Amino acid sequence: xxxxxxxxxxxxxxxxxxxxxxxxxxxxxxxxxxxxxxxxxxxxxxxxxxxxxxxxxxxxxxxxxxxxxxxxxxxxxxxxxxxxxxxxxxxxxxxxxxxxxxxxxxxxxxxxxxxxxxxxxxxxxxxxxxxxxxxxxxxxxxxxxxxxxxxxxxxxxxxxxxxxxxxxxxxxxxxxxxxxxxxxxxxxxxxxxxxxxxxxxxxxxxxxxxxxxxxxxxxxxxxxxxxxxxxxxxxxxxxxxxxxxxxxxxxxxxxxxxxxxxxxxxxxxxxxxxxx
Length: 276
Hints:
Strand content: 15-25%
CATH superfamily: Vaccinia Virus protein VP39
Distance between the termini: 70 Å
CATH class: Alpha Beta
Number of helices: 8
CATH topology: Rossmann fold
Radius of gyration: 19 Å
CATH architecture: 3-Layer(aba) Sandwich
Number of strands: 11
């Protein structure tokens, strides 16, 4: 009888296989290609490079990102988006990313920043039950290590899909603080609305979320941060509260949509300009 995928034996065997493949791959791996053991932590390893390039295309087409602008990557991982951005952001612009994964940040600072000094990475020592059980800080209290009104663009790819409501609310507050007036933002979510609930019920193989009656939905009650969804009206209310009104929602196919832009739902916001 085969062992379950989440058993300790299977996890150890899977990790050993990745480490072996890293050794085999190392002689031919480019200097801006993170090892397999890191790539697999930020999604489908086989689609790592194409997903990064796709995100850059979204940033340019949906947020009108310019090469000379300052951009913030919240949850930057091991550089999936940073690496393709090195070919787009010029010396007048700058990239800043932070993540709760120490190994990913170490790789980025050792391999990307030396070649591109305007690419900066920081570790955020934040607890997350699914991704950083050793973290000491709380997402609901974390202050982004950047000045007010510093960024032109901010984006979060598959970050709020792993964060509880108090953490999401604090992050939106911080994003609003560090964005310049009229700054733009792209955030991915799993959005619960009438359509996604209807389609999801017809797709048993897709992600199924349960309402935990705590302001969010989750696939796993014991480990909600593995995958979290929010009602559309909740997201809109929070964005309005923190002066990041939603300009457009591009719905994804996570729930079984036939017409979609990406896998997760993408929310485009612009920071409000307050006129005196």
